Amino acid sequence: MSRMPRLWMRHEHRTSERRAPLVPEDAAQLVEQGFHVTVEESAQRAFPLDDYVAAGCRTAPAGSWTAAPADDYILGLKELPEEPSFLTHHHIFFGHAYKQQEGAGELLRRFTAGGGALLDLEYLTDDAGRRVAAFGYWAGYAGAALAVLSHRGRLRTPLRPLDRPGLDALLAAGATGAASDGERALVIGALGRCGRGACDALATAGIAPTRWDVAETRDLDHKALLSHDLLVNTVLTPCPVPPFLTPADLDDPDRRLSLITDVTCDVTSECNVLPVYDEITAWEHPVRRLRDGGGPVPPVNLIAIDNLPSLLPVESSRAFSAELCPQLLRLANSDPVWTRARLAFETAVADHEGSAHA
């Protein structure tokens, strides 16, 4: 029998990130199965360190993963700090490095320089290619909620984490009255997890959204898209497709669309389906003006935050951890889910090295 893996959950470098890929209840399951789990201190994490200690985890100072034993898997969510330049461990997090995103080459170079590997959470898939652990539902929910609150003039900045009842109360409070009269919202990718979350948030806000998926985007009706007030995009594509919205669409004199929420935020990738902006927005300033408008044509604003589920850190972390924990339990057994993730990394490295020498 192979030795059980060692996991080291790091503190998140991004200050607005309060989620955890593994919550205390699921960490306890891993410890019971013989895993060695270390959790770094983190003042911003939504789950107290004492709860992990009670689950049987060991603790370490924030950022000390660089000195972790060489065979530890370093578990996180968002980007790593810029140092060290050599990554020697196997890391499990959302690397956003396989579709030529900005900074992808440098991240892959850090892994090849140190002999480590990236087991990207986005590429943990089953035999049918479906992701086995995702924040999609809560990303869609939070993205649509911010769109509604901004459109109704009820969005308070900088953003602060909430719980589900608190966010729902804000949505429901504006569900009647002049602000919500005749609001038209479109969700693209409505049949997926992310799209379902967006539709649920809109329903809480008293809006019955238009729901588009593959059939509607195959031959997309741009005029119909522009006839909505709100657009929530939840489509993440692995290969380039015709864009859903272009700069020319924003200049259409008949445009009604006034707010775009891009949940997927694939902005620096050639797979971006909304090439109308070139930089994401942030918690401090979540809304950016794309067009000023004029006459009967309204201004159009953008929300493009790449860690939306952190707006609901407890609910989203528990849902994600419940999906990830069974996969972590199979980490020692060369399970196909992890084999595919390793192959995705090796393919990305080979492609990057090939393009660098072309």
From TrEMBL:
<dbReference type="Pfam" id="PF05222">
    <property type="entry name" value="AlaDh_PNT_N"/>
</dbReference>
<keyword id="KW-0520">NAD</keyword>
<comment type="similarity">
    <text>Belongs to the AlaDH/PNT family.</text>
</comment>
<comment type="pathway">
    <text>Amino-acid biosynthesis; L-lysine biosynthesis via AAA pathway; L-lysine from L-alpha-aminoadipate (fungal route): step 3/3.</text>
</comment>
<dbReference type="InterPro" id="IPR027281">
    <property type="entry name" value="Lys1"/>
</dbReference>
<keyword id="KW-0560">Oxidoreductase</keyword>
<feature type="domain" description="Alanine dehydrogenase/pyridine nucleotide transhydrogenase N-terminal">
    <location>
        <begin position="8"/>
        <end position="142"/>
    </location>
</feature>
<comment type="subunit">
    <text>Monomer.</text>
</comment>
<dbReference type="InterPro" id="IPR007698">
    <property type="entry name" value="AlaDH/PNT_NAD(H)-bd"/>
</dbReference>
<feature type="domain" description="Alanine dehydrogenase/pyridine nucleotide transhydrogenase NAD(H)-binding">
    <location>
        <begin position="169"/>
        <end position="304"/>
    </location>
</feature>
<dbReference type="InterPro" id="IPR007886">
    <property type="entry name" value="AlaDH/PNT_N"/>
</dbReference>
<feature type="region of interest" description="Disordered">
    <location>
        <begin position="1"/>
        <end position="21"/>
    </location>
</feature>
<dbReference type="InterPro" id="IPR036291">
    <property type="entry name" value="NAD(P)-bd_dom_sf"/>
</dbReference>
<protein>
    <recommendedName>
        <fullName>Saccharopine dehydrogenase [NAD(+), L-lysine-forming]</fullName>
        <ecNumber>1.5.1.7</ecNumber>
    </recommendedName>
</protein>
<keyword id="KW-1015">Disulfide bond</keyword>
<dbReference type="InterPro" id="IPR051168">
    <property type="entry name" value="AASS"/>
</dbReference>
<keyword id="KW-0028">Amino-acid biosynthesis</keyword>
